[in-house]
Amino acid sequence: MARKIIIVLLSFLLLFPAANLIAESRQELVILNWSDYLDPDLVAQFETAYNAKVTQVFYASDERRTELLLETNGKGYDLILTSGVDISTYVQQGWLSPLNKDQLPNLAHLSSHWRHAFPYAEHYAVPFFWGTTGIAYRQDLVESPITSWKQFFEPDTELQGKIALFDSPGDVIAMALKSLGFSSNSEDEQALARVRDLLRAQKPYVHSSQYLSMDENSLLVRGDVVAAMAYNGDALMLAEYNDNIRYVLPEEGGEIWIDYFVIARQAANSDLAHVFLDFINDPINAAQMAAFVYYATPNLAAEKLLDEDFLNNPIIYPQKSSLQNSELYTPRSPRAQRLWHIMASELLQ
Amino acid sequence: MKLKAKLSLLLLPLVTVPLLAVGVAAYMQLTDISKQRGQQQIHTLFDMYDSQIDNITRTAQSNLHLFSDYPLIKQYFLADSEEERYLVLYLPVQRQLYTIQKNYPEYYELRLLQPDGFEDLRMINRPLPNHSEMELGSSAFNELLVSDNDISTRVDRNPDNNELALYVTKRITMINDAIEDPGATPKLRGYFGITADIDFLLRQLEESILGNNSGMLLTDDRGVLRYLPTHLEGLNDDLKGLFAEKSDTADRLVQLASGIFQLSSRQLQNNLWVHALVAEQDLRDASRSLNRTIAWITIVALAASLTLILLALNLQVIRPITRLRKGILDLSDGNELVQIPIQSRDELGDLAQEFNRMGRALQQSNEQIRNMAYNDYLTELPNRFHFHKTLSQAMDVAHRKNRQLGLIFIDLDNFKNINDTLGHQTGDRLLKDIAHRLQNNLRGIDVSGPVNLTPQEHNLARLGGDEFTVVIQRFSSVIDLSKVATRLIAAIERPFIHQGTEHFVSASVGIAVFPSDGDTPEELIKHADMAMYEAKKLGKGRFEFFSTKISKQVLERTHLERRLRVALENNTFKLHYQTILDNKTQNIALMEALIRWDDAELGSVAPSYFIPVAEETGLINAIGSWVLNEACGQLRDWQDQGNNGLKVAINVSGKQLEKPEFADQVLATLKRYDVQPESIHLELTESAVIQGETEVIATLSKLRKIGVQIALDDFGTGYSSLSYLRNLPIDVLKIDRRFIQGLGQQNNNIILSAIITMAQAMNLQVIAEGVETQGQFAFLQKEHCNMLQGYLFHRPESTEKISAKLTSGELHFN
Question: What ipTM does the predicted assembly reach?
Answer without folding.
Answer: 0.80
